[in-house]
Write a structure and sequence with these properties.
Helix content is 27%, strand content 25%. It is α/β, with parallel strands linked by helices.
């Protein structure tokens, strides 16, 4: 029997579901309803079109309605909003471009309504100079303010991915940008110590960053706006971009009987099925399982949405496909830096009371003797059995492939031993014989095996000052250029000859620049009967913390 499948929403999840379903079933009748003018566009590329990194607006259009009809024989109805679902009658109510309502029957229904920009309830927030960035129309509006109206100052509300990306691209266009973030850091996917590196990069490139601050009112003042902040300060801007997160666009489902979570996300099972037979849901509007901790969450990312659309289509076509959860693998360009993460961060693990260990390494992006090598920072989180729980990395080059490798280890339920054993491609322009992923695995192995005795700077600050001796094992010149207050300097190469200078009754806490010489000092001291702790990540990690403070 010929199936009739209705899909609510295009872009990533809906368009992927439609294309996959057509490949599996040439005879199904497939209709996509999209309330926007565009069925499938590169929403992750929108900030870069505003910044003119992407020059041609047409490059943002992934698939047009006409293309979908010609290639896949799919009926795409743009500017058509589904306003209600009627499971009992197996139909949906649709409002077309003219505002007329009609119903369309279905055998199967896939919901991919996505999420809409969250606008906080602030007096004046509905000014036409306050915009969000969610679709191409939003992009055109923001770009017009810069290109045609010559606006030169902006406030960005929210320091998430969209907020940081739009701030960077406005700076590139010569717009003065103040970024206001309610939390104590930008980019909540990263831990505070890692985010500090990115905040420093934002500030270096001209972004006026205001953390632990909110906008409490927006007022029209002449041709511009005046914003009142939670600090009592008032700042002026030509326009505002709100990047304070997204909320599921599921209001039209109320009263349908489709089960929603506390924040309005659609509840689905591993086959992307809702609680109502023959209705599926995918994308930013659904709850998913966190692959690492097994808890329900929402992770609005394009990659998972595409996979979910494929899985919903598979199950409608009779294939038994399941979605095993999201791990939040993400990456962002922040001016000259790249930052990427996967799995859980420390904040999540602490909230869920999941025991973990943390290590930091600062390897070079490729062989140091080959020109152009740059240092990166990698943070790895793992449990007592060595299972990898999460990772974050920041650097100029090679960050993406390192996090992608670790993301693969997590997806395959791998351990730090697997990271250490991975055989990864090597040539001097691309990596080192010991790839940064291997190095992170080696350090974690040593920690678990008791070969090294690692603590973080946060752990160090909790120690009783009377109980330890702090030793900087870098060279004298490095020590003179900057060191931790109270540290004595014994270079690692002199340590064996100067052991008698250290008090055996106290714990010897050592640090170096990035951790390796501290590890060597740890091995020397521990094998000579000293109780030793080595601060993971060394002085370089402490410098990032100092920027934050």
């Amino acid at each position: 029997m010929r199936k009739k499948v209705l899909i609510v929403g295009g872009v990533a999840g809906g368009a992927s579901a439609a294309a996959r379903l057509r490949r599996l079933d040439e005879h199904a009748e497939i209709i996509i309803f999209e309330k926007d003018r565009y069925i499938s566009y590169a929403n992750c590329g929108l900030p870069y079109y505003i910044g003119e990194v992407i020059k041609d607006r047409d490059d943002l259009i992934v698939q047009s309605a006409e293309d979908m009809k010609i290639r896949f024989n799919i009926d795409v109805r743009t500017e058509s909003e589904v306003t209600g679902i009627n499971p009992g009658d197996r139909n949906v109510t649709v409002k077309n471009k003219s505002g007329d309502l009609y119903t369309e029957n279905y055998d199967y229904l896939i919901l991919s309504p996505g999420a809409r920009a969250f606008k906080p309830a602030i007096p004046g927030i509905n000014s036409d100079k306050v915009l969000s960035l969610r679709n191409i129309s939003d992009t055109d509006a923001i770009k017009s303010l810069v290109d045609e109206k010559g606006m030169k100052s902006a406030v960005v509300i929210g320091g998430g991915f969209i907020g940081v990306e739009i701030a960077e691209n406005l700076i590139q266009r010569g717009v003065a940008v103040t970024l206001v973030e309610l939390a104590g850091q930008v980019l909540a996917q990263f831990d505070e110590d890692m985010a500090a590196i990115l905040e420093n990069e934002l500030a270096k490139n001209g972004v006026n960053l205001m953390l632990n601050t909110s906008v409490t009112a927006v007022d029209e003042k002449g041709d511009g706006l005046e914003l009142t902040l939670s600090t009592g300060e008032k700042i002026s801007a030509d326009f505002v971009v709100v990047g304070a997160g997204v909320i599921p666009d599921t209001d039209f489902l109320k009263g349908s009987g489709i089960e929603l979570g506390l924040r309005g996300h659609i509840i689905v099972n591993e086959k992307m099925q809702t609680n109502i037979r023959d209705i599926y849901a995918v994308g930013d509007a659904i709850e998913v399982v966190d692959f690492v901790n097994g808890k329900k969450t929402a992770i609005p990312l394009a990659g998972p949405a595409n996979k979910q659309g494929r899985i919903a289509a598979d199950n409608i076509a009779g294939l038994n496909s399941v979605y095993k959860g999201s791990q939040g693998s993400s990456i962002i360009k922040v001016f000259n830096l790249t930052a990427a993460c996967t799995g859980n961060n420390e904040r999540t693990l602490k909230r869920l009371d999941m025991p973990y260990k943390a290590i930091y390494v600062h390897p070079m992006s490729h062989a140091s003797y080959y020109p152009g090598a740059t240092q990166m920072t990698v943070k790895l989180l793992f449990d007592d059995q060595g299972k990898v729980l999460g990772a974050q990395a920041i650097g100029h080059e090679g960050v993406d492939k390192r996090i992608d490798v670790i993301a693969t280890v997590i997806r395959l339920n791998g351990t730090v031993n697997d990271m250490a054993e991975l055989e990864l491609s090597y040539a001097p322009p691309y990596s080192s014989a010991k790839d940064p992923v291997n190095v992170a695995g080696f350090v974690a192995q040593n920690c678990l095996n008791g070969i090294s005795h690692l603590i973080t700077w946060d752990d160090f600050e909790k120690l009783n000052r009377e109980d330890y001796v702090l030793v900087d094992v870098r060279t004298r010149s490095e020590y003179r250029r900057g060191h931790i207050e109270g540290a004595i300097n014994i270079p690692v190469d002199e340590l064996r000859e100067r052991l008698d200078e250290l008090d055996r009754e106290k714990t010897i806490v050592v640090y170096c620049q990035v951790g390796f010489r501290g590890y060597l000092a740890d091995r020397i001291l521990s094998q000579n009967g000293y109780n030793v702790l080595n601060i993971t990540g060394g002085f370089r990690s402490e410098l990032a913390r100092r920027v934050k403070k």
